[in-house]
Design brief:
The complex is a heterodimer of chains A (252) and B (483).
Chain A (H helix, E strand, L loop, with lengths): L1 H4 L6 E14 L2 E14 L3 E6 L5 H8 L7 E6 L2 E2 L5 H10 L1 E4 L11 H12 L5 H18 L15 H13 L5 E5 L7 H18 L2 E5 L3 H6 L2 E6 L2 E3 L5 H8 L1
Parallel strand pairs in A: 3-8, 3-9, 6-7, 7-8
Antiparallel strand pairs in A: 1-2, 1-4, 4-5, 9-10
Chain B lengths: L1 H12 L1 H39 L2 E5 L14 H11 L3 E15 L8 E3 L2 E11 L1 H7 L2 H4 E3 L18 E5 H6 L8 H4 L35 E3 L4 E3 L2 E8 L6 E8 L2 E6 L4 H6 E5 H7 L8 E6 L5 H11 L3 E5 H4 L1 H39 L1 H9 L4 H32 L1 H12 L6 H4 L10 H28 L2 H6 L2
Classes of the chains: A alpha/beta (252), B alpha+beta (483).
The structure holds adenosine-5'-triphosphate and magnesium ion.
Chain lengths: 252, 483
């Protein structure tokens, strides 16, 4: 496992320095992140590990520019979040970053296929849509087929199982061929075999397209296959931990 | 692309939106129907009033020092001078108006009580038929009688008889005739063979009169040979007091023959005006002084103000008014009523707007998470704003279009609707004795209709603005946490 912690080659895509984040609940202040320093290089797969409630999802949202940090900086491709206007951030989220949320977050009124198509719909305006429609619909079909939902395309989220929803969410995150993928426990709801298939799909994408990935996971096998992993302990990222800890966490 | 798509999806998936659409629809339909009926009413009122009044009305001013024997200039002379004044004056006609009363038993009309008799107050209008036909619509409106000379006694039996033209509504109210067959009621002109040109129908039923009924004496007497009806009216008469030399007004009963029925499309004037031959009327009422008003028709009514001004200068002894001057208060009242009603009814559309505001606010609250998701997927704030703006706009557009359809149907079938309402609830929506018309006049003005629709769409848009702004201001991650 020693090579997993070594610095992967390639330029640094995402750089977090001294990131803090606290939630205020009434008078008490819950300090979740207390100065995270983290680099993610182009083309690598970084696993984030940690106890439940230690702030992994929070960190992922902050890294993906969804949520501003209280202090510290997050540079994505050399640009600080604070210096990028809202509209441009939206464009980056749409075209460059993909998000798989822990709780899927599908649009309940849309079918699985429409949910997967939504990033493309947002990307192309009314004028550009007709010329892209065929290609992106095809891609959505292929993705849903790859995650094993070939005959669930017309289902609403409410008629899908948790694992199926999770896979729709993965397909949606991949729809716009993002260069950077954030996954929050992408296989958390899947059985061993399906989880392996999904992981293989993600890893294959990483190999083929050089897609950078940050994966929050409790899955030891997934963490082991990552290029690198960090632990979130006491609100800080530590990359000196042993992977045995992962098994320990799983036992919790 | 997602904006219209999501707006449509939200619209379709939520029942409340359909309620908003329904609200806008009803508001638009009601406004369209009301403005159409009111515009129609206004137009019809103007047409009938202008039809009976002609374009200009000239009233002689009586000089202050004129004695009781004051005589107006002879009409023929005045006519010559007036026609020579301006080539745009087409025709002039004299007219006199005298009070007349008809004994009548209905309590639905205004009546006065004179000497134990219930009298329906009317106006005897004396006209010169040949000239009147050129200045007003009376000839065109004559639905029974001889259009060439209705006052002519075809049979020449009774030279002293007075002839009268009555209004259609009045005739219908006089139950003596039963169901109206105008050709039977009124004698027509003589054909070359000396027979009436109108084919006589079967003899009318004899009038059944209860001998104990004190009104029986006023029932028209049927003449089975001529189908002419004789009515009895009280006319104002005039006489000069032998000692003081002053004019006295008196009353006298007379029995004119109904020689024609006119349909003025105006129940009020039909109920209150009977037309007599001007010379005959003068004779029976002993009205010796030459006194008449002048009705004037112009080539084009647009010239009225100009001609009115020049006439006033050239004929200081005449008071010159357009028909609009004479009916100014009435026309203003109709216009005011219309504006008031439109303002009041606009509140329905405004209410529709508030429903949209409420439902969209609700939608935004309910869709907070969706908004977060869209933000996370890269939809800019402006895009999210537009999803909800489009939603409101769609409600407005769909509601307006449905309202247009409903309003159009209503306007097309307004008389059917009125009959249906009258049959099922017994309420007449448009009583002829108030609104003067037997049918509900409507006008379809696209300008008005489009303004109503545009206004409604605008209100829907504005109603959607607040919730949409709220949606756009949501922070994606905070919205995502919303469960
Ligand atoms: N909106 C919030 N308001 C207050 N506290 C919050 C909020 N979101 C998260 N927290 C708290 O912050 C801490 C970190 O939450 P987070 O979701 O990041 O944990 P996690 O590491 O992803 O856990 P898990 O592995 O169970 O998903 C938790 O203790 C949680 O209770
Ligand atoms: Mg989490």
């Amino acid at each position: 496992m020693s090579d997993a912690t070594t610095q992967a080659p390639g330029r640094v895509l995402l750089q977090a320095r001294g990131v803090t984040k606290a939630y205020k609940l009434g008078s008490t202040k819950l300090e979740v992140l207390r100065g995270v320093d983290l680099d993610v290089c182009e083309g690598e797969i970084l696993a984030i590990l940690g106890k439940s409630g230690c702030g992994k999802s929070t960190l992922l949202h902050v890294l993906g520019w969804l949520d501003p940090a209280d202090s510290g900086s997050i540079h994505f491709e050399g640009r600080d979040r604070a210096s990028v206007p809202q509209r441009e951030r939206a464009r980056l989220r749409n075209e460059v970053m993909g998000f798989v949320f822990q709780f899927y977050h599908l649009l309940p009124e849309l079918t699985a296929l429409e949910n997967v198509l939504m990033p493309s719909m947002i990307r192309y305006g009314r004028l550009a849509w007709p010329q892209h429609k065929k290609a992106v619909t095809e891609r959505a079909h292929v993705l849903l087929e790859q995650v094993g939902l070939k005959d669930r395309m017309g289902h609403r989220p409410r008629h899908l199982s948790g694992g199926e929803r999770q896979r729709v969410a993965i397909a949606r995150a991949l729809q716009n061929e993002p260069r950077f993928l954030f996954c929050d426990e992408p296989t958390g709801n899947l059985d061993g075999k399906t989880a392996d298939e999904i992981r293989d799909l993600l890893w294959q994408l990483n190999k083929e397209t050089g897609q950078t990935m940050v994966v929050v996971t409790h899955d030891a096998r997934m963490a082991r296959q990552a290029d690198r992993f960090v632990h979130i302990v006491d609100g800080r990222a530590r990359d000196d931990g042993e992977l045995d800890l992962v098994e320990e966490i799983q036992r919790d | 692309m997602y904006r219209l798509f999501l707006a449509l999806r939200y619209l379709r998936s939520r029942l409340v939106n359909m309620i908003s659409v329904g609200g806008v629809m009803v508001g638009v339909a009601v406004l369209i129907v009301v403005t159409s009926v009111f515009d129609g009413f206004q137009e019809q009122v103007r047409a009938t009033v202008r039809g009976t009044l002609s374009h200009l009305v000239l009233t002689p001013r009586r000089p202050a020092d004129a004695g009781p024997d004051w005589k107006q200039e002879a009409f023929a002379d005045l006519e010559r001078r007036l026609l020579a004044h301006d080539p745009r004056i087409v025709a002039v006609a004299p007219q006199i108006r005298l009070p007349i009363a008809y004994p009548y038993r209905s309590n639905r009309l205004e009546w006065a009580n004179v000497d134990g008799l219930t009298l329906h107050q009317m106006e005897a209008v004396g006209i010169d038929w040949a000239r009147e036909a050129k200045v007003s619509d009376l000839k065109k409106n004559l639905i029974a009688g001889d259009q060439e000379n209705p006052f002519f006694d075809v049979w020449g039996t009774d030279k002293e008889k007075t002839m009268v033209l009555v209004g259609r509504t009045w005739a219908e109210h006089m139950k003596f005739w039963g169901p109206m067959d105008f050709r039977r009621v009124v004698s027509g002109p003589m054909g070359p063979d000396g027979q009436p040109m109108y084919e006589p129908g079967p003899p009318p039923e004899p009038v059944e009169v209860d001998p104990n009924d004190p009104m029986a004496q006023f029932a028209p007497k049927q003449d089975p040979r001529r189908y002419i009806n004789e009515i009895r009216v009280y006319l104002a008469t005039f006489s000069k007091d032998a000692t003081t030399g002053e004019m006295r007004m008196d009353q006298q009963s007379t029995n004119p023959l109904v020689k024609g029925i006119y349909d003025g499309q105006d129940a009020t004037s039909e109920m209150t005006q009977m037309y007599f031959d001007i010379e005959k009327l003068r004779k029976v009422t002993h009205l010796e002084q030459e006194y008449f008003e002048v009705r004037m028709r112009l080539k084009d009514y647009h010239d009225a103000p100009e001609i009115q001004a020049s006439l006033a200068k050239a004929f200081p002894e005449l008071d010159v008014q357009t028909w609009e001057d004479l009916k100014r208060d009435f026309l203003q009242a109709v216009e005011t009523e219309k504006v008031m009603l439109v303002v009041v009814l606009s509140f329905i559309v405004l209410l529709g707007g508030f429903i949209i505001l409420a439902t969209l606010t609700l939608t935004v609250v309910e869709k907070t998470k969706d908004i977060g998701i869209l933000g996370a997927l890269g939809a800019p704030r402006a895009g999210i704003l537009r999803v909800f703006l489009t939603n409101g706009l769609l409600i407005g557009i769909i509601g307006s279009l449905l309202g247009l359809g409903l309003g159009w149907w209503f306007v097309q079938n307004v008389d059917g609707v009125r009959a249906f309402v009258a049959k099922t609830t017994g309420v007449d929506l448009f009583p002829a004795n108030i609104y003067s018309f037997r049918f509900i006049p409507t006008v379809w003005q696209w300008g008005t209709v489009l303004a109503i629709m545009g206004g409604s769409v605008l209100i829907s848009f504005l109603a959607g603005l607040l919730p949409a702004l709220r949606a756009a201001r949501l922070d994606p991650v905070k919205a995502l946490r919303y469960e």
